Amino acid sequence: MKKLCFAIAIMAICVNVGWCQKHQKSSGIIPAPLEFKTYNYGFKLDKNTKIIVNVNSPEYKVAEYLHDVLDTLFKGMKPILAKQDNPKYNVANSIIFILSSDKKLGKEGYVLDTKRDKILIEANENAGFFYAVQSLLQYFNITPYGQHISFSRDTIYEPSSLIALSMIRDACKIVDYPRFAYRGKHLDVCRHFFIVDEVKTYIDLLAYNKINYFHWHLTDDQGWRIEIKKYPLLNQIAACREQTMIGHYRDYANESEMKFDGKKYCAYYTQEEVKELVKYAAERYITIIPEIEMPGHSSAVLSAYPQYSCRKSGVKAACTWGVFDDVLCCNDSTFAFIEDILSEVSELFDGKYIHIGGDECPKVRWKECPVCQKTKQDNGLKDEHELQSYFIRTIEKFLNSKGKSIIGWDEILEGGVTQTATIMSWRGNEGGIAAAKAGNDAIMTPENYLYFNWYQADPKTEPLAFGGLTPLEKVYNYNPLPDALSTDEQKHIIGLQANTWSEYIADFSLLMYMDYPRTLALAEIGWTDKKNLNYDKFLESWENFKPFYKKLQQGK
Ligand code: ACM
Ligand code: ZN
To answer: Measured between alpha carbons, how far is 106 from 110 in angstroms, rounded to an integer?
Structure first.
């Protein structure tokens, strides 16, 4: 009898509170939130929904952003209402921003609670408010990208127009914060270039899924893509290659058989454009990490400034893909040149990290070069791996003096690394494991799981790609915390990142095809608590967004 009374009492509470029955429902939000429940009543958004925020608070900016998005959708939203000292919690049909002091939410966490006629958004910092807004937009299936705005499946439209009248969804409560502090996405703009507007859309999409670092691969053998005022030949010469190879590198038995398109390919971002993009990203709580490759992948820079190569001449920006023998000569004049470049780069980017590459640096030129050999001897270095390490340490010291920290690909572990470098583990997990065991921070980006220039399905049915196979489910099942690490060592794995190299990606729609939905899987395994990872539910949520991404993939 006691048990029966207890059950009846619980049921009564459930009916009152209104959410027991729907407790298990999937949110449809990517990345899936930590806690999510729905109530048994709906919440309606329409043009009379009011946004209420303290006008003098930092989060006012986020409220404005939300207002802009909703105004685009509803045309003629109510203006933002100021919440001064006396919070107007009783305004009906409103979205209210409330500063929280809940430590567990951290910098990026938030609570979003939908009452009968209002939505309360709580966070400690702007990033948290911003992510609450992204979750809200996703929940209503609104994708906020300029002309790419797409509307909810639950939208009621004004007859014969695209102006939304209202959207109704089940009221819900979300409590959410990320699993990893670093959630990164990389883009190579050297092999193929993407214009400022495309990079902006790219950044919008990352922000929509709570990715917080954009790794911008700006220099490589096939082109130097950032303006450096002190060295104008970088933009007059190094930003160009004579032509581009056709088809797949592996289709040709040797270089002499290769086919080329005969079209000169030149492009770079001006410093003004870089500043604009850094600001644009910061407004979306994304830090841009510029990558300036050294000492390898340097054909383009050496085509403009051959005095910094071991042989002093004969290098051209590459027209094919691969790894090239001519690299930066390891001596003080090269360091001075690179440090000048990095001084300008450091000024342009607001984050603490500068990526200095360090991967795939053949040592053949160094072995033959008297200058490099002298550097090796003068500094008591055992071999060319230690010479590479000496190169990286010299540059790291310089960047530290500018208040920056370096990230390098896992090759920088060879020959010894300082305690302060962060390692990007790309040749599997091993580099990340070695780094974490040595006490260095590491970011996991193993090619066999997180390279999105690899095929995502049977190559016979896919556009030409680099090779390999990283289908969606494989990405989703990647575990960034290897068992080989103790719990303490795992703390050095600060997060994960996926990379998209653009050898075979010549335009933005193909980039969208290669990156989506795999980037959504990346976002989820970077943010969502392990206990909530569920591939089937992820696929269900993806269905909500598929039409939007399909349009982008068709160049619409
Ligand atoms: C790399 O893919 N070479 C870092
Ligand atoms: Zn040399």
So the answer is: 8
